[in-house]
Specification:
membrane, alpha/beta, Rossmann fold, transmembrane helix, transmembrane
Amino acid sequence: MRPTIVVLGSGDRGRIYEPPLKDRAMIVSASRTIGYELAVAGCDLVVFSSDAAYVEKDVVEGYLAATVGDGRVIVRAPHGVAVGFDTSPEAAERIQVEPDPAGDWETSYYRSVFGADGIIVIGGGRSTRIAGVIAVAVRIPIVAVAAFGAGASIVWQHLCRHMNDATADDLHLMGRSWTDASANRLVASLLAQRARRQAAQEAEQKARRRDTIRRAGSSLAGATALSLAAASILLAYMTTGIGAALACLLVGPILGAIGGALVRDTAEAYSSLLWSAARGIGAGVLATTLYVASQLLTNEDTLTAESARRLLWFVVPMGIAAGYTFDLVYAKLRRVDVLPNESLQPTSTDAAGPPVAD
């Protein structure tokens, strides 16, 4: 798909710019050369006016003068505003006027910035500066021709602070004085920024797909572990031996803890399925051991087949909760002092000095 490049700016001799405009006489030829290089590079051109006060008129003339490619010139102007370029009938067929129903130039002007594949700003005043700053803020590839000063130089300074997909060489190129090779290099710089931006977007999409797969895997593994934990309760009632019941008493809450940890894993920004499963095993073993040990301390006859079945109804949910909250509880425990600080204050005896010899 052909990249769509928006060109903005002006170099009107009768207008006062802040910062001042530089090399007014060279802006016309520079604009035409930029238009020519955009056509050679296979880009579509977007402009907003055919008024000679703006650089678009000269950019379009240079663009249509290129005999290569079949690129389009898209003119986005308010409805009812006449647009016309001095060109041959054959070249005029490449001009596509898209009237904006909003009726004011600001709407089509700033809206086009968000939909552009790249932006070039030359000279210009307040509106050019605002459009350039918007492009930098939303990370649209941009070339600010700072050699001619005015609004484009402010955009260049703003881009130097944020860079986005521009390299240091790109920024140095934008700030240099204009030469015969500048247009070709600046267009190449703009397209290189676009390529880097596309590569970054593709990398983000791949990362999101990997994250989606990871979360789906964690959800599936967690659901499987929780199902097996619930099945351990049923299996304990289907067996009559004490060994099988005790095995269910041990495995059931551990599976529940693994399931709880994996379910928690799906809500984490950065996590690992294996680490979550290991955390669940640790939480399940700890919770089950502590609870069963407390029962044995109070009643030595707890571990019978029937009592193991009854304990499963409690330790399995406890294992799920332990796996889901283990990292939170552990982090809190690490911040808690074993004894309150006030209990460590010295007694009145301790505070007294050594006995004084008579």
